[in-house]
Structures are given as structure tokens and as C-alpha cells.
Design goal:
13 helices, 12 strands, globular, two-stranded antiparallel ribbon
């Protein structure tokens, strides 16, 4: 196990605030949905809203390295958009290196990995997906029956791409999705890396639920901004900052109606049943994945390595992009 002893610089604070907001929003939204529990699919509320999101999405994608290929993979739940960055000849190691599949946080999609991709491209083939049922270029046609259905469509995507084994990496909600996939389909997973995975190790802090209630109430925007700042552990001024990524996330949260389930916390038996290597990285400040308490539980269950990064928050992949840029390739290589 390891704990970071020096504070990491805070980067992309606005993305942190919006990411924290969207996780909280998901939980509150699902609680409200209990009052209207009919099954539905993720959809855009209007064509105009989709157009605004698409413009913002394309603006962010333009800042990423150009994908080698773009795939639209059909599953029983809908079509999944997946981007591929092929390994160069030296990085492919003759085809022995297992590819990496990146699973995004809520409303973040493949564009969220921009700061990470630049460190990994060329070393091995990388894939990044937009989640079915969420904002992005994927589309949903069949409702989910439970949160565990997330693992089913991910498995169908891997099969559709003819990927026998992959290193799975998930952030936030995507970490929960990657976990349930690994639980049900362990043979497909060479290793599992969970970056601030919500709910699956430990539930979110009670304060998150309290502050997130402001986001759905008819209160002044200044109160909502305060709620987002408290959830994210940053200032109100940072909440109000605008970047291409924050604009994209904001457009997705306003115009897309997601249709998924809140992740569940896995039992001790479920965690112990997973035999693949599992790496868990948690934020030291304002963690939405449980922070030190989640780390303690993961270690008690024999999960290693478990790393708590002081000075980071729920936007851990962006804040620790340089360090993860070195550490994760070494981890993948050790478990090919």
C-alpha cells in the first residue's frame, strides 16, 4: 500500500466541481425517479439541446490527439461509440501487450481522458468509450434492468471489438461500471484500475447528499454554486470558471436525460472473488469514493496497491495525470 506525502497541484478545478456535481446529481435524480419508476432510455430532451452539446463535444475532441479509428459497436442496449489509438510498432511489442479500455465518469465521455492520453499513446493500443445511457455519442435503445446491466453492454463492446483481454481503467461512475464488468467477466480483464470509483467500495459521504439537494431546489444560483463548491472541495469562484470541458459537461447535464441506476456497494465476498490484479486510487481531499475509509476497507479485503493521493480530489485522473502517465503503463506491463 502507499500514500502520497506531498500535495499535488490542483488542476482543472472547474472539472472537479462539475464532476462532483454530476455524481451527486445522479444520486438525487435517481431518488426522485423512485416516484416515477417506469423503465426508460437515455435521451436528449430536445434537438436544440443535442446540437449545443455536440458543438461543445467536438470542441473538446479537437483538443485530443486524433484517434486512429472510430467504432460504433452494437449491443443489446444500443450503440456504443469507442475511439481507438493504435500502438506504434515499438509499443505493440509484437502484439503481446494487452490493450487498455478507458471507462469515463458520468457525463464526461471519452473526452475526459485528454490529459491522460498524451502520456500513453503509442505504448499500447488504447480505447476510450462514451457510456450507453449517458451523454455522449453512444445511443441507448433498451432500458437497463439494474446497475449490473452496465457490465453486460461493456462485455458486448469488448466482444464486438474482438478484444480477448484488456486492462480496464474506470473513473468515478466508470470505475463502478468497470468493477461490475470485472465481477461478471473476469476472464476478459487482465487488470482493473479504479480511479475514485463511486459507491462500489464505500458509499458517498452524507454531506454530498445534503449539499446536492440544493441543486434541485428552486434556490438562487449562488446557493447552487455554494453546493457545488462544498461537494468538490473548492471555491465558488472556481465553480464559476468556464473551460471547453466544463461547457461540454454542463451542456450534457442540462440537455441529456440519463437512464441508469445508482452503483451498488459490493460485498466482501464479491470483492474477494475477483482474482485479477486490482489497483485502487483515491483522493485525499473531498473524495466521493470514500477516501481513507474506502482505502482501509480495500486493504482489509486484500486489494493492492491502494493509493491515497493527498492534495487531489474527485478529478484525480486529471490532477495526477503526469504521475499516472508513468505508473499505469508500468502496472499494465507487469500484468500483461
Amino acid at each position: 500500500m502507499s500514500d502520497r506525502t506531498s500535495r499535488r497541484p490542483r488542476r482543472r478545478q472547474v472539472l472537479l466541481a462539475l464532476g462532483a456535481l454530476l455524481v451527486a446529481w445522479l444520486v438525487v435524480d435517481k431518488a426522485v425517479a423512485i416516484l416515477a419508476p417506469e423503465a426508460t432510455v437515455g435521451h436528449w430532451r430536445s434537438q436544440e439541446g443535442y446540437g449545443a452539446y455536440l458543438d461543445a463535444y467536438q470542441d473538446v475532441m479537437a483538443t485530443l490527439p486524433a484517434p486512429t479509428r472510430t467504432h460504433d459497436v452494437m449491443t443489446e442496449y444500443g450503440s456504443a461509440r469507442v475511439y481507438e489509438w493504435a500502438a506504434d510498432e515499438e509499443g505493440s511489442r509484437g502484439g503481446d501487450a494487452a490493450p487498455v479500455m478507458l471507462v469515463p465518469g458520468i457525463s464526461s465521455g471519452a473526452p475526459m481522458w485528454g490529459e491522460n492520453l498524451v502520456h500513453w499513446i503509442g505504448q499500447r493500443t488504447l480505447y476510450a468509450m462514451d457510456a450507453i445511457g449517458d451523454a455522449g455519442m453512444s445511443t441507448q435503445s433498451v432500458p437497463f434492468g439494474s446497475f449490473d446491466d452496465q457490465g453486460a453492454w461493456v462485455e458486448q463492446v469488448l466482444a464486438g471489438l474482438e478484444l480477448d483481454r484488456v486492462h480496464m481503467v474506470g473513473h468515478s461512475f466508470g470505475g463502478a461500471v468497470a468493477t461490475v464488468h470485472a465481477l461478471e467477466h473476469p476472464g476478459r480483464v487482465a487488470s482493473l484500475t479504479l480511479l475514485e470509483p463511486v459507491m462500489v467500495v464505500r458509499g458517498m459521504p452524507a454531506s454530498t447528499y445534503l449539499w446536492s439537494s440544493l441543486l434541485l431546489l428552486p434556490v438562487p444560483q449562488s446557493w447552487k454554486d455554494r453546493g457545488m463548491a462544498e461537494i468538490g472541495g473548492i471555491t465558488v469562484e472556481e465553480v464559476r470558471e468556464r473551460t471547453p470541458m466544463s461547457v461540454m459537461i454542463d451542456e450534457g447535464s442540462r440537455h441529456h436525460s440519463s437512464a441508469t441506476f445508482v452503483p451498488r456497494t459490493l460485498t466482501d465476498e464479491e470483492w474477494r472473488s475477483m482474482r485479477m490484479p486490482v489497483r485502487i486510487d483515491l483522493a485525499g481531499d473531498s473524495s466521493l469514493a470514500g477516501g481513507e475509509e474506502a482505502a482501509d476497507r480495500a486493504r482489509e479485503l486484500g486489494r493492492e496497491p491502494v493509493t491515497v493521493w493527498p492534495g487531489t480530489t474527485h478529478s484525480l485522473p486529471m490532477q495526477a495525470a503526469e504521475e499516472l502517465g508513468t505508473e499505469l503503463p508500468a502496472y499494465w506491463a507487469a500484468h500483461d
